């Protein structure tokens, strides 16, 4: 009910005014109560919605797992995969709906309650106070004796001042009441209308999504009749088999009834056993035990989560127990505890003991293969210090990462369809994507595109810098170079998903729109990138002191693009090992990496003289290739040229057989750029691949004193125990060079590895001190690299 208080009436302070004020105050109190209740209900609805979305995501993951399990049935696999994608899109629509509810109902109404109603309450307090003061002044004025003139004057003055103050306060109070009554309608209707429009959009999106799915659903409905017939036939066959098995005699072979083997699921043995509790009463309980995946586990009921008795069977032994009263007992002993169990018969006890012994032997045989798999996986890790644990990086998340990435020109719209305000990114391509295109990119596989949320995921500083180095404009210039020439239409927001998916696959999988360079263009590109230059400006990353960068050298008499290369006195310098190398003077004007350069700083004084890092020299190769372009672009720190080389089909682990079998990742170390190394690792570069000297990227980063790169490689699983042809590990090199930072990192990593091995092969936590220190080094390497130069600078300044 709308109640308006008249300004003239309030000055009279009549009973009608007082009654109106009382009614208004009651109405406002009730309004506040209702709004608080509505906000709380909205919060509850949003929390329930988030819980629903989380459970729904798990359900969709279950559908995907079921589809993967049904690989032999193409109909089920394809149908469930399509259903999972559609339901995943609906989860995203639900998330947007709940976000809109939070903005329109919770935030807007809470602001109205906290701001407008708070002002009303403050005005009411002032009104009540001045009303009491006016009443007191009236009473005092009435009580003033006639014969005491000074008291009469004092009471009259007080009454006059109080009345004047009352008029101001009451007018302000009435104004606040009228404004509140007027504003409440607009605020409430505005929030509810926004909420209803969010629902309208949600149901429209759902309708459009399932309209595309309807033909498939109709097709599956037509196939159900045949499926029902097939199921009935299978039922008859199973009933016949059941009847046949029921007639068999198992009296002389109880082990067939008490346990079974499921090798396909990794179960070597399972069945019921009595287990002695570890409490003071030593009670015995019957539990379902199983040996699976190198573990001994048990559960009380099928729905219960298995309890692990032995995490790694390689660390335990099994033996008979004849010194207790109960029969058929045996004991599994591990370094930390033992478990006493009882079988139902002697045959079953012998079967369990044999199964445990066989599983121990199998686990030892599989240990080597498992280690190789872990090494391969570690080279393509995308972030955390421990692959299985929660990342503790001091990283950017949410709006901070979103603002930094979207600030890059071209990133404000989806790279593939142009949808404004993208909230997803492909971290190995360096582009931003809308929610629909991000789902399509995920379906391509991580070897083509690794998708991450700009608002929900955590961003490591080096990965964020990688995103800022590339961007949609740079990548589209490469992957869409021939699109207009071929007459291909680029998708627009709102286009059907199948059309967008076809375009994205043609763009990134088939690379149909990439312009292939001619032999002459590729030759010029490689020579240009091989020049002794640095692509650093005032806004680019600062690098630690490093060895002289790769110096191009051509054989005398060679000719590139029709220009003769001549030596010059200024083109000769001493390399790290004392040799003199010829510098190329070939000009270049067609490389993405060309830029103004500055003089290289000298080699750090801390570099060990016994094992210097060989200077990279450019010799004219026998054949120019995209792999060679990636090789030199990595050294030149030119991410656009690196992305172009990968688009042309360059192998990320390409080996330069003419230059000590070095790889692009090793050249990125030579170039000194942390972001270049991160880009190669995100595109599946092998962090442990060695050159002809037996040195991997970690060796080279240690020799050059690149602390940030050492930190990055250790996080990505680099093998710090690898030795080169001089039998030196990275730690040996760092100690010889007296580089305290790198020695600290290597020793901490080694200590953490030993601690995890001591805790057991299934430990994922790692040492917190180790992780905290690596966080600090990661931050310094990306945001304040000058701090990592303190030891090198000190050594260079010493007399």
Q: Which properties best describe this structure?
A:
799 residues; seven-stranded antiparallel sheet; 18 strands; Substrate Binding Domain Of Dnak, Chain:A, Domain 2; PH_domain; Annexin V, domain 1; alpha+beta; three-stranded antiparallel sheet
Description:
The chain has 799 residues and is of the alpha+beta class. The protein has four domains: 7-228, Arfaptin homology (AH) domain/BAR domain (Substrate Binding Domain Of Dnak, Chain:A, Domain 2), CATH 1.20.1270; 263-366, Pleckstrin-homology domain (PH domain)/Phosphotyrosine-binding domain (PTB) (PH-domain like, Roll), CATH 2.30.29.30; 396-509, Arf GTPase activating protein (Annexin V, domain 1), CATH 1.10.220.150; 523-550 and 585-797, Ankyrin repeat-containing domain (Serine Threonine Protein Phosphatase 5, Tetratricopeptide repeat), CATH 1.25.40. 54% of the residues lie in helices and 9% in strands. The chain contains 23 helices and 18 strands. The strands form six sheets. It has a seven-stranded antiparallel beta sheet, covered by helices on one side. The longest helix has 98 residues, at 149-246. It is extended, with a radius of gyration of 37 Å. The N and C termini lie far apart (88 Å). 32% of the residues are buried. Mean pLDDT is 75; it is low at 255-259, 368-394, 532-613, 761-766 and 791-799.
């Amino acid at each position: 009910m709308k109640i308006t208080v008249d300004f003239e009436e309030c000055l009279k302070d009549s009973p009608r005014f007082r009654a109106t004020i009382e009614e208004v105050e009651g109405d406002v109190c009730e309004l506040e109560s209702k709004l608080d209740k509505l906000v709380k209900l909205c919060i509850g609805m949003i929390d329930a919605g988030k819980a629903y979305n989380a459970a729904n995501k798990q359900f969709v993951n279950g559908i995907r797992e079921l589809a993967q399990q049904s690989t032999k049935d193409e109909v089920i696999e394809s149908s469930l995969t399509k259903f999972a994608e559609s339901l995943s899109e609906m989860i995203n629509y639900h998330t947007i709906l709940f976000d809109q509810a939070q903005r329109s109902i919770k935030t807007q109404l809470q602001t109205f309650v906290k701001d407008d109603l708070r002002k009303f309450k403050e005005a009411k307090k002032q009104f009540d106070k001045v009303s009491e003061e006016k009443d007191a002044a009236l009473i005092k004025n009435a009580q003033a004796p006639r014969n005491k003139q000074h008291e009469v004057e004092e009471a009259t003055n007080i009454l006059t001042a109080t009345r004047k103050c009352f008029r101001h306060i009451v007018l302000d109070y009435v104004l606040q009441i009228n404004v509140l009554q007027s504003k409440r309608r607009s605020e409430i209707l505005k929030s509810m209308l926004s909420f209803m429009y969010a629902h309208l959009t949600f149901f429209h999106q759902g309708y459009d999504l399932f309209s595309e799915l309807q033909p498939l659903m109709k097709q599956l409905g037509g196939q159900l009749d045949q499926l029902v017939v097939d199921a009935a036939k299978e039922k008859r066959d199973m009933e016949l088999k059941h009847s046949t098995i029921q007639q068999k005699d198992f009296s002389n072979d109880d082990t067939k009834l008490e346990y079974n083997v499921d090798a396909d699921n990794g179960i070597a043995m399972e069945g019921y056993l009595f287990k002695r509790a570890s409490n003071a009463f030593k009670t015995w309980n019957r539990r379902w035990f199983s040996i699976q995946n190198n573990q001994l586990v048990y559960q009380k009921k099928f729905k219960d989560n298995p309890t692990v008795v032995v995490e790694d069977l390689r660390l335990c032994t099994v033996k008979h127990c004849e010194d207790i009263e109960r029969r058929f007992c045996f004991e599994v002993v591990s370094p930390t505890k033992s478990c006493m169990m009882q079988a139902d018969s002697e045959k079953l006890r012998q079967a369990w003991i044999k199964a445990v012994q066989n599983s121990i032997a199998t686990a030892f045989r599989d240990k080597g293969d498992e280690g190789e798999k872990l090494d391969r996986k570690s080279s393509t890790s995308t972030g955390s210090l421990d692959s299985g644990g929660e990342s503790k990086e001091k990283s950017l998340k949410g709006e901070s990462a979103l603002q930094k990435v979207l600030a890059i020109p071209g990133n404000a719209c989806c790279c593939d369809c142009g949808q404004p305000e993208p909230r997803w990114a492909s971290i190995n391509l360096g582009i931003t994507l809308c929610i629909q295109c991000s789902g399509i990119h995920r379906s391509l596989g991580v070897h083509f595109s690794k998708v991450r949320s700009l608002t929900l995921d955590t961003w490591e500083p080096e990965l964020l810098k990688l995103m800022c180095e590339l961007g949609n404009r740079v990548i589209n210039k490469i992957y869409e170079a021939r699109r207009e020439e071929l007459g291909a239409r680029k998708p627009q927001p709102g286009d059907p998903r199948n059309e967008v998916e076809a375009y994205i696959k043609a763009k990134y999988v088939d690379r149909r729109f990439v312009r292939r360079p001619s032999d002459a263009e590729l030759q010029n590109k490689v020579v240009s990138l091989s020049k002794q230059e640095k692509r650093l400006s005032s806004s680019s990353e600062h690098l630690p002191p490093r060895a002289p960068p790769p110096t191009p050298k051509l054989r005398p008499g060679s000719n590139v693009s029709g220009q003769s290369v001549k030596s010059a006195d200024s083109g000769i310098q001493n390399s790290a090992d004392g040799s003199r190398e010829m510098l190329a003077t070939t000009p270049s004007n067609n490389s993405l990496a060309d830029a103004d350069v500055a003089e290289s700083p000298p080699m750090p004084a801390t570099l060990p003289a016994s094992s210097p890092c060989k200077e990279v020299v450019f010799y004219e190769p026998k054949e120019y290739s995209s792999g060679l372009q990636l090789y030199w672009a990595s050294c030149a720190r030119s991410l656009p040229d690196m992305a172009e080389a990968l688009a042309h089909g360059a192998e990320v682990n390409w080996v330069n057989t003419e230059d000590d079998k070095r790889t692009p990742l090793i050249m990125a170390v030579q170039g000194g750029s942390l972001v270049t190394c991160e880009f190669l690792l995100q595109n599946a570069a092998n962090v442990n691949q060695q050159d002809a000297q037996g040195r991997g990227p970690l060796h080279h980063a240690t020799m050059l004193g690149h602390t940030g790169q050492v930190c990055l490689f250790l996080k990505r699983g680099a093998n710090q125990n690898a030795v080169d042809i001089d039998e030196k590990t990275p730690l040996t090199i760092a100690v010889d060079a007296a580089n305290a930072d790198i020695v600290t990192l290597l020793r901490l990593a080694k200590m953490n590895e030993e601690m995890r091995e001591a805790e057991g092969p299934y430990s994922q936590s790692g040492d917190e001190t180790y992780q905290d220190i690596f966080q600090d080094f990661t931050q310094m390497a990306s945001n304040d690299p000058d701090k990592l130069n303190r030891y090198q600078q000190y050594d260079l300044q010493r007399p």
